[in-house]
Amino acid sequence: MAPVTMRAFEPLRLRAGQMLFARVAGPEGPRNRALIHNTPGPRWFPPESPIRRVHADSAMFVGGLSALLLQTLHPVAMAAVAAHSGYRGDPWGRLHRTSTFLATTTYGTADSAQAACDRVNAVHAQIQGVTEQGIAYRASDPHLLEWIHIAEVASFLRAHQRFAAQRLTARECDQYVAQMAHLAQALGVPSPPHSLHELRTRLAAYRPELRATPQALDTARYLLLSPPLPVPALPLYAALASNAIALLPPWAAAELHLPRWRRAERWTVRPSGRIITSLIRWAMQVPTEPSRGPVASSSP
Q: What are its E.C. numbers (predicted)?
């Protein structure tokens, strides 16, 4: 019997890559991908830069979900998201818009990246309201924007260092935080952290403000237990979700009433995360040259 080669799995890889790309990028994904990567012009971030490497790796699938869980813990930010984001009514549309924004700002031309930020700022300028506790909020509030930003940066970086094909050095971690700061400033955060030490300090400074409101707990249950996915995909999502929980700081998991079992995480959860992210990486064929990422994969 002839040995089975990887070429025999190519149709499966292509099909899996197409399905993943369609889920993440939406029906406009191929068109957006072509515009992002093929439009000539200067970019905000050069090839081989840490931000391109982080956003190109499949570890982002775990980091993104972990970031959403962490972000729910700011009561005012959570109230704004619950009232205005439409994440329940159109979860895939929200994912498509977020992934396209991230791809545009990371890999697109400088003009495209700035235009994408300008569009987000215009939307934020229209969003305001009052929480159930009577606290007024604006989506353009720099303090709330900074919380969303640092929760994302910390979660993306933590996931990358745990699951990526190639981890960042300490110096590259600082570079990643600094490059993300450029994006944060374009979105209205006046003084975001520029190093890993500053990021950790800023996270600690927000800690007194953070707690799990009923809205946060409800959102966490939705994200973890009721994802809008077909039944065959649920076991794979469960592995991503369990690893997203394991990435959270212990205090954050406790606030959200999410169980943490260290032995289970070491022997079952983390291995499953490595397997799932490796499978996603294989399916989407993220190249060594990180000019494209999971949100704008090179898969056909």
A: 1.-.-.-
Kindly state whether residue 292 falls inside one of the protein's structural domains.
Answer: no
DSSP 269: I
Pick from 34, 69, 12, 22: nearest CA to 216: 69
pLDDT tens-digit series, residues 62-84: 999 999 999 999 999 999 988 88
Residue-range definition of the domain harbouring residue 190: 9-286
Residue 26 in any domain: the answer is yes
Q: Closest by alpha carbon to 185, among 144, 156, 139, 145? A: 145
Q: Beta strand pairing status for 136-138 and 128-130?
A: antiparallel
- CB-based contacts of 177-184 (< 8 A; 24+ apart in sequence): 177/153, 179/45, 179/49, 179/50, 179/51, 180/51, 180/149, 180/152, 180/153, 182/44, 183/44, 183/105, 183/113, 183/117, 184/145, 184/146, 184/149
Which H/E stretch holds residue 137? strand 136-138
156 neighbors 98 (Cβ within 8 angstroms)? no
CA atoms within 13 A on the CB side of 89: 6
Does residue 193 fall inside a structural domain? yes
pLDDT in tens, 137-174: 999 999 999 999 999 999 999 999 999 999 999 999 99
Q: Determine, yes or no, domain membership for 299.
A: no
How many domains does the structure of the chain reveal?
1
**Given 3-state DSSP classes, what are the helix, strand and coil percentages for the chain, each rounded to the nearest 5?**
70, 5, 30
Closest CA to 281 of 57, 60, 61, 106: 57
Distance, CA of 236 to CA of 276 (rounded, Å) = 7
How many residues does this entry show for the chain?
300
Q: How far apart are CA 86 and CA 53, in angstroms?
A: 30
